[in-house]
Amino acid sequence: MENASSSASSSKKQPIVIITIGMAGAGKSTFVQRINSYLHAQDPPKPPYVLNLDPAVTHVPFETNIDIRDTVNYQEVMKQYNLGPNGGILTALNLFTTKFDQVLGLVEKRSETVDYVILDTPGQIEIFTWSASGAIITDAVASSFPTVIAYVIDTPRSSSPATFMSNMLYACSILYKTKLPFILVFNKTDVQPHNFALEWMQDFEAFQAALATHSGTRDSEGEPTYMNSLMNSMSLVLDEFYKHLKAVGVSSMTGDGIRDFFAAVDASREEYEKDYLPELERARAARDQSLQAVKDDSLNRLMKDLEVDRAKNPDAAKLDRWDPAEEEEDDDDDLDVNLIDRSDDAWPGNYVDITRARRNGEEDINWPRPA
Ligand SMILES: Nc1nc2c(ncn2[C@@H]2O[C@H](COP(=O)(O)OP(=O)(O)O)[C@@H](O)[C@H]2O)c(=O)[nH]1
Ligand SMILES: [Mg+2]
């Protein structure tokens, strides 16, 4: 029986997790709303399991199963730690990460009935992609379920060669960091079709030609500028990167292209199984270790990110402080620490651990402070 267990993990039905990442305003949340309603409209309906990881969002345009805002009160985090919006979002994400083993447990319970799990991430891309917490969450998810990154791009805002390239370089850095199947989602095609992007990706000479017609690519002597030469060389590098990913155009507004997106997701599952699975045992061990470490060491390890950021940029740090004048009327003054699965029918049985902590009075229910 023992040797059957390794194959059992791959034969057991598992949902595929879609992690949406993208620049602020690219349309991640609108996209999640659209794919959510697309899945609900299938016959038979395939309601996904949806997680919101943006603590600062005021309005979530879709029904969530787990919402970081139920676990961490972002306003209260800013106040208690004397942080402004950026530090507040990062700290809220750090706090949530210390509970992420429970999140995985909740998703695991739905494995049999759910085909897709969708993660919406904070508006500011770097908070998720360059923080320890973002990396721990991504790795923990990817070592538990087949996972794909949906990199959402604001197509109309990427139509100049220089912005297009910087967006692609960012995508490239995330691909190499996560090593996960990757789908470029060119959003807002209702405003501008994405065929220019496909052309630039398939034919670097077309990209270089577009670059040449843009102003600032020649100096006063008519020679190509440094930036122009750099971008020409980079386009050759990116040519290799483009071979490793899928690209689809969608409009989260009209729903155009969503079917193509799901075709790319389903194809990504095979890619995950081929490329990621061989590494899985090692990844799972690493996951268990890092989730345990963030619990043991609470916040200290995660808060290093914030210290480093602040040391590097003290002026910005000074500005990113809690402003009492901005406090909203809020009668709930506690840092809320409950992890809630909203989709459970029983209420308040949804509270995962803290009701228990309160009842026993043993565990410290206050959030740990960084040393
Ligand atoms: N025209 C158009 N606008 C969109 C589309 N998707 C999102 N938007 C708009 O882009 C803005 C940012 O969207 P949001 O989902 O909040 O972006 P997020 O910060 O990435 O989560 C909002 O005003 C949306 O209405 C789309 O497909 N077409
Ligand atoms: Mg959003």
TrEMBL record:
Q: What is its main location?
A: cytoplasm
Keyword flag Cytoplasm:
yes
What CDD domains does its record include?
Answer: GPN1
> Where is region (Disordered) located?
317-351
Q: Which UniProt keyword terms apply here?
A: Cytoplasm, GTP-binding, Hydrolase, Nucleotide-binding
Q: Which E.C. number(s) belong to this protein? A: 3.6.5.-
Which Gene3D superfamilies does the UniProt entry name for this protein?
A: P-loop containing nucleotide triphosphate hydrolases (3.40.50.300)
Keyword 4Fe-4S assigned to the entry: answer is: no
Fetch the Pfam families from UniProt.
ATP_bind_1
* Record-linked InterPro entries: Gpn, Gpn1/Npa3/XAB1, P-loop_NTPase
* Composition bias type Acidic residues, residue spans: 325-336
Compartments, record wording:
Cytoplasm; Nucleus
**Family under the similarity heading:** Belongs to the GPN-loop GTPase family.
What is the annotated role of this protein in its UniProt record? Small GTPase required for proper nuclear import of RNA polymerase II (RNAPII). May act at an RNAP assembly step prior to nuclear import.
Which PANTHER family does the record match to this protein? GPN-LOOP GTPASE 1 (PTHR21231:SF8), XPA-BINDING PROTEIN 1-RELATED (PTHR21231)
Q: How does it assemble?
A: Binds to RNA polymerase II.
Q: What is this protein called?
A: GPN-loop GTPase
